Model the fold of this input.
Amino acid sequence: MRVLNPIQIAQRLELLTEVGVALGNPDTGYVLDRILHVARNMTGADGGTLYLPNADRTSLRFHISINETLGLYQGGASGREIGMEAVPLYDAAGAPNVSAVAAYAAHSGHSVNIADVYQDGIFNFSGMRSFDAAYGYHSQSFLTVPMKDHHGTLVGVLQLINARPAGRGTIGAFSATDQRFIEALASQASVAITNQQLVRQLEELLEGLIDLINIGIDEKSPHTGRHCQLVPKLTMMLAEAVHETADGPMAEFHLSDADRKELWLASLLHDCGKITTPVHVVDKATKLETIVDRIGLIDTRFEVLLRDAEIDALRARCEPGADHAVIEAGHARVRAALLDDRAFLRRANVGVENMPEADQDRVRRIARRRWRGPDGGESDFLDDDEVLNLTIRFGTLTAQERKTINNHIDVSVRMLESLPWPEHLRNVPEYAGGHHERMDGKGYPRGLTGAQMSVPARVMAIADIFEALTARDRPYKKGKLLSESLHILGKMACNGHVDPDLFDIFVRSKVYLTFAHENMDKRQIDSVDESTIPGYRA
Done:
């Protein structure tokens, strides 16, 4: 074993420390580059290769290849593609490939230290010989070290070529000391790389679970599913615009890559509680709709009344001395009144922004009409629940149904706060749970004021409202025009609903227009005079 002097030992320890610091870098590509460079510097190797297993773990692909004498640096941070074919880990019959030294090290888990490959009769170095012939190079000593994690799973293979001991220009063998240092380096690096891979896999799993929730919501209601896709998109567009603002109240707001990831995940999960909301409430297109639209039942009752009126008229005609003309006129008046009431209830069943009090009173008058049901008993034409629904002033939801809808945010918050979020994602529940709060404290679920809300939560509130206003796929309403949506949102900025400073950026940076062209129906995109938008300081 070649004995190292104190200076050489100190140098190698410094290199190991350098790698230890580099291993903390989240960029796996950078870490792999540093491992190979440090390994070469530590042993004086002229060249080196780092192999990584391919996706199906059937071969070793060249990830980085360096040769100082030839001036070659391919793969890794160089950005230059490596044209060499991958080393197969198995032969055509499926047996482990042990003829290639890198494949052997990968399978066996043992390092291979060869002083002179041209004198070796164990492994197949035909590829190396071809390389030497092509480049006029002479490969001699090889040190091949497998990199495996704590489970024994292959992480990669580190291979060094042509040792040049310090102070000597001649090529020599890699010493046992070299081998032990490189094995220690490979072991340390394997653990760090595996940890990075596990973190990345966990992040991918988290995103997959989020997608799973959104798929469930989408399957319940495709309308809500589209909302879950577009709100994150609009949220990030506005957040980036705020990030780029150089002056005004939002000039100090900045986003790091980690902040972006956190906000993106929160926006994806902002309506996760809707997975518990009954679909007939989420998609309630008419006032009487539950699992089916009950207007059909009311139509049937009208048919019964029309039939009864006709029967009564026919019976009257059969009476001695009956005046057929009078009877027919009376029947016509009853029939016309019934048809008019039926047409009115059909109109009343459609949600509007403000149902007149007179129309509500007419519903109640019709409700008191008597009819005979299938059991032969008489009852009011409309029951209490039907009257309650048909007299809804705004939209199609009763107060209880609106409470059920609003409860999704409470469920979302409970779901998100129950998760053990890591430090860099700790704000996800607050961001996702705050998009129904208002600047004036009149929102829900917690009645927070603007000062109590984070900027990302206020950004998401604007994105959520604007997408809902412009959405063209809701069963209970049509998508509003772009100008109309901005006018409504502007009023909300004026009355304490949304942040006026963020709304100003939303308009000024043309976020609304970019979003509109990418996601709205062209028929909704009308001309916008920004000077007329409430709350916007043109």
